[in-house]
Write a structure and sequence with these properties.
about 375 residues
């Protein structure tokens, strides 16, 4: 799928089929099988097709299959889908290993959605809110590069921040490529997270942490934590444990989260003498329209006109904006001025590395211009 295809209205059966491939690539046998079975069931007259009738035609970029899977997982976490829970490791279940158990799991999945179909409009109303912790490993690397170039405090702003967990990235422990950065006793340990890091790095001093989201999640509440957990894939317990560790950072590191439009937020930003402004976004662009993406670029370009070596502007993205969606999520920066170790003009889109969908590991590479 290309970024242009995100705006297309597609058949839900086809979207589940495509999602099954992504689950296979990204290591979730449980969801891979559920997606394949769902795609088949939606391709013909069935109970499931009748349940999901309001969503049978939907925008590809709205990730409706992930919303439906998240709804089922939430019902399991709420102890309202006891049979399905038998197959979800996040609550002690066991992933199906044979045809009979896979059919039992799928039947329980359909039954859980049917039993709670009155809640589906509410459960499917918003985009997936994973706020995957491991994706912060890319941001940490760039924050260290920024600090090595300009020894100034960093103002960190995240677009599509969800619960704002990435805004605490510098408080996570990152290892790999011979580096050990972040507090050794951090409750979030991203081990072997970097491959091929050769850039000069320095410990960042983050003095401002602000996130904006259309519908931010308050993870100081049980409801917020339940909502985020529901979007973790149930057979990926490492992700589940990382998220639980992040709750300690939530209590220890204060941030500001605002409900609002990401473009309006960028429009409100101003550079400040003696500090670097870092604007970060990851797995957000699919939810924006072509017009919004173009407007963002225009606003950033205007803000860049005021940038200098004593007040730099850096945009960090981990998106697939002009590439094909799969297992590859490039880490891209645009910087005004450009970072010291990169031979490119200010504002050029420079690829620093790559990462899989869930973030680990980040494979750093020789910086090069992104092919548009």
């Amino acid at each position: 799928m290309t970024i242009a295809e995100f705006d297309q209205i597609d058949d839900l059966s086809a979207l589940f089929s495509r999602q099954a491939q992504a689950m296979a690539i990204n290591g979730s046998p449980l969801y891979e099988e559920l997606c394949r079975a769902t795609a088949l069931e939606l391709s013909r007259a069935s109970r499931l097709k009748e349940i999901l009738e309001p969503w049978l035609r939907c925008r590809a970029g709205d990730m409706v299959p992930l919303r439906i899977l998240g709804a089922a997982h939430r019902l399991v976490l709420e102890r309202k889908a006891p049979v399905l829970a038998l197959f979800f490791p996040t609550v002690g279940g066991v992933v199906p290993q044979d045809g009979r158990s896979r059919q039992m799991c799928f039947d329980a999945f359909v039954a859980s959605l049917d039993d709670h179909r009155d809640r589906l409009p509410e459960l499917l109303a918003g985009p997936p809110q994973t706020n995957e912790i491991a994706r912060a490993a890319a941001l940490v690397g760039v924050l260290h590069m920024v600090s090595a170039t300009w020894d100034v405090p960093i103002r960190l702003h995240e677009l599509g921040t969800s619960a704002g967990l990435h805004l605490r990235a510098d408080h996570m422990r990152i290892t790999g490529s011979g580096y050990d950065v972040g507090p050794a006793d951090s409750p979030v340990q991203l081990l072997d997270a970097w491959i091929g890091m050769e850039a000069q790095i320095a410990t960042p001093n983050v003095v401002e942490r602000v996130g904006v989201d259309r519908d931010p999640i308050d993870v100081t509440t049980p409801e917020g934590r339940l909502h985020l957990t529901s979007f973790v894939w149930p057979d990926q317990l490492d992700r589940y444990e990382r998220l639980r560790g992040a709750w300690e950072l939530v209590d220890a590191v204060p941030i500001d989260i605002w409900a609002g439009d990401v473009i309006d937020h960028v429009r409100s930003l101003r550079l400040r003498e003696g500090s670097a402004l870092v604007v970060w976004h990851s797995s957000v662009w699919m939810y924006l329209s072509d017009a919004q993406r173009a407007e963002f670029d225009a606003v950033i370009a205007g803000l860049a006109l005021t940038a200098s070596a004593s007040s730099p502007l850096i945009e960090v993205s981990r998106e697939f904006r002009q590439s094909r969606v799969g297992s590859s999520f490039p880490v891209v920066i645009r910087s005004w001025p450009m970072l010291n170790h990169i031979d490119a003009p200010a504002g050029a889109s420079v690829v620093l590395g790559d990462s899989p969908a869930q973030g680990l590991p980040v494979t750093w590479s020789t910086p090069h211009l992104r092919a548009e």
